[in-house]
Amino acid sequence: MKLYERLLLENKAWAAEMVQEDPGFFDRLVHVQRPEILWIGCSDSRVPPNDITQTKPGEIFIHRNIANMVVHTDLNLLSVLQYAVEVLEVNHIIVCGHYGCGGVKAALTQHSYGIINKWLRSIKDVYRFHQAEVDGIESEELKLNRLIELNIEEQVLNLAKTSIVQRAWGQRKAPHLHGWVYDLKDGIIHPVSEIEACTRLEHDIYNFDNLNQIV
Ligand code: CO
Predict the structure, then answer these.
(1) Are residues 124 and 199 in the same domain?
(2) Distance from residue 141's CA to the centre of ligand 1 (Å)
(3) Which of 15, 133, 151, 202 to pair with 57, CA 20 to 30 A apart?
(4) Within its chain, how far is the Cα of 143 from the centroid?
(5) Is the peptide bond before 175 cis (omega within 30 degrees of 0)?
(6) 101 in active site
(7) What letter does residue 71 receive in the DSSP assignment?
C-alpha cells in the first residue's frame, strides 16, 4: 500500500473511532467552530499542536510556518490573526517554538537557501538584537536553544505590536499572549514568555492611545 493510501485508510478508521466514542461529535462541529486559542507554531512535522496538547478538532485555530514567525508583512499570518481575534474572538494566542528548530539553526549560518533567505532574515534580526548574550554561550546546542527562546519571545512581542491585538485589547481586554517552547527530547512544553492583555509594552511607542480609531 502506498503511503498516501494508508493516510486515507487511517482517516476512515479515525472517523469511525470518533463516532464510536462520541456519536454527536461531527454533528456539533459541522456548523460552527469556537476555538479559545490561536496557535502559531513551527511547520516541523515533529511538533503537531493537537497531538502534543491532547486537543481535539475545534479546540485550537492553527497557523504554522518555518520557525513560528510573526512577520508584519505576512498577509497569511495577518489574515489568520485578524480572523482569530476579531471573528472567533480567541482569548489566548500561543506562539510555540521548539528546541532544535532547523529554521533558527539555518538563520545562524551564512549559507544561502534560496527564497527561504528572506524568511530567515527576521530570525537573523533577533540574533542581532541579542548578539552579546547568544555569543556568550559556548555550547553550540545551548546557543541555538537560547536563540530559539529569544525568537519566541520576539514573536510574542511582534503580536502585541499589531494593530489587530492592540485594538482587541482596547475593545475587550483580550487576547493574552503566550510564548512556549517544546522540547523534542521529552515532549514537554515550557513557558518562555507571557504578555497579559492591555500591557504597556517596554517600548511603549508600540502602544496606541486612540484604540478605537486603529485601522
Ligand atoms: Co522548527
Answers:
(1) yes
(2) 14
(3) 151
(4) 21
(5) yes
(6) yes
(7) -
* Structure confidence by residue, pLDDT tens digits, 79-135: 999 999 999 999 999 999 999 999 999 999 999 999 999 999 999 999 999 999 999
Query: Looking at the structure, do residues 10 and 42 belong to the same domain, yes or no?
Result: no
Task: Give the β-pairing of 92-98 and 189-195.
Answer: unpaired
The question of whether 46 is a catalytic residue gets the answer yes
Q: What is the CATH number of the domain that holds 65?
A: 3.40.1050.10
- In the DSSP assignment, the letter for residue 106 is H
Provide the sign of the torsion angle of the four alpha carbons 82, 83, 86, 90, taken in this order. Answer: negative
> Do 106 and 63 have their domain in common?
yes
> Is residue 44 among the annotated active site residues?
yes
User: For residue 147, what pLDDT is reported?
Assistant: 97
Ligand 1 centre from 140 Cα, in Å? 17
Distance of CA 68 from the midpoint of ligand 1 (Å): 7
Same structural domain, 21 and 83:
no
pLDDT (mean) for 193-201: 92
Question: In terms of domains, do 160 and 193 share one?
Answer: yes
Identify whether residues 24 and 93 lie together within a single domain: no
Q: How many domains are there within the chain?
A: 2
Compute the distance from residue 109 Cα to the ligand 1 centre, in Å: 15
Domain that holds residue 6: 1-32
pLDDT interval class at 211 (50, 70, 90): low
* Same-domain pairing of 68 and 130: yes
Phi-psi region of 196 (alpha: psi -120 to 50; beta: other; left: phi over 0): beta
